[in-house]
Design brief:
The chain is mainly alpha-helical. The chain contains 14 helices and 6 strands. The protein has one domain.
């Protein structure tokens, strides 16, 4: 069996960047989020490879690399919603757009790899692998009510953000799951149909683990986000109001559902090319528009 050498590389960089942060060394303090998360992702992929003999980075490299632009696109959807919700803003980001925009891409590109690698680690450790639920007879008649519920949740969050903003962190599950289930892709509805609970529990746990790490590492960084979340209380753990941590587990479910929906688009042919690849110019335009919107509306201050 190959040795998981990238575990040691990830661990080494994680330690180095953590020390550099506490010594307030630039550019580590400004780019700490991306540096520490990519170190974490590489490190736990090495652990997974050691436990299973295979991992996402080593054995499914193309799929892993695709997660990065998908991750950025998915998170930009939430950044777009935040333009209305105004639940967080950024401080200390780089002044120069030449560094700032690639920084956005690299930082947002960690979200899906972090959640899915953490989920794989939980699975590789054997947690919840044999968990079962009473099978639920999912019917196609459920599709329309679920889609309506998801769309309504998003609409309420946008129209009444003061009270309905939490709906954002579950709405995409209802909105997109029917498409995943109908097309035979990996689906939470199918897991419920087959009485399998392991995937669900692993995702919820990975969301909470990543949430704790996101907030811990964000707290110390120079370029960071700060929350202005209404009515969840002023008791905070790091920058996050304590009640806000309950949003991370359902967010992990959303990421899982959204990435499998994107895989549906990737595999759907239009002419001789896949629809996903034909849409690359639109993706790039979307990145540019959203990066500019973040600069104008969400960034409160610039650092070095």
């Amino acid at each position: 069996m190959k040795k998981p050498y990238h575990f040691w590389a990830g661990l080494g960089f994680l330690v180095i960047f953590q020390i550099a942060l506490f010594m307030r060394l630039e550019p580590v303090t400004t780019y700490f989020y991306s540096l520490i998360w990519w170190s974490y992702i590489v490190m736990i992929d090495g652990i997974i490879f050691h436990l299973r003999g295979q991992s996402l980075m080593v054995n499914q490299t193309r799929r892993f690399l695709l997660l990065i632009p998908w991750s950025t696109a998915i998170w930009l959807v939430f950044e777009g919603i935040n333009l209305v919700l105004k639940n967080w803003h950024y401080v200390g980001v780089p002044k120069e757009m030449f560094f700032r925009w690639p920084g956005y891409f690299v930082a947002y590109g960690t979200v899906l790899p972090a959640i899915l690698e953490t989920k794989d680690l939980v699975s590789a450790l054997g947690l919840f692998e044999k968990s079962r639920l009473t099978p639920i007879p999912v019917k196609t008649t459920w599709y329309r009510p679920l889609i309506v519920a998801g769309a309504l949740g998003l609409l309420l969050a946008l129209l009444i953000p003061l009270f309905c903003f939490p709906l954002v962190w579950l709405s995409f599950v209802f909105l997109l799951e029917p498409f995943n289930h109908r097309t035979g892709r990996q689906s939470l509805l199918r897991d419920l149909q087959e009485g399998k609970a392991g995937n669900l529990y692993q995702l919820l746990l990975s969301g909470m683990i990543c949430g704790l790490l996101w907030e811990f590492w964000n707290f110390w960084a120079a370029a960071k986000w700060i929350y202005t979340v209404p009515w969840v209380g002023q008791i905070k753990l790091f920058e996050m109001p304590v009640l806000g941590f309950f949003g991370f587990p359902p967010f992990a479910l959303e990421c899982f559902v959204m990435v499998h929906f994107l895989r549906l688009l990737e595999s759907h042919p239009v002419g001789k090319k896949k629809i996903f690849w034909q849409a690359v110019p639109l993706w790039l335009l979307f990145y540019g528009v959203m990066f500019a919107a973040i600069d104008f509306y969400t960034v409160r201050s610039f650092g070095c």
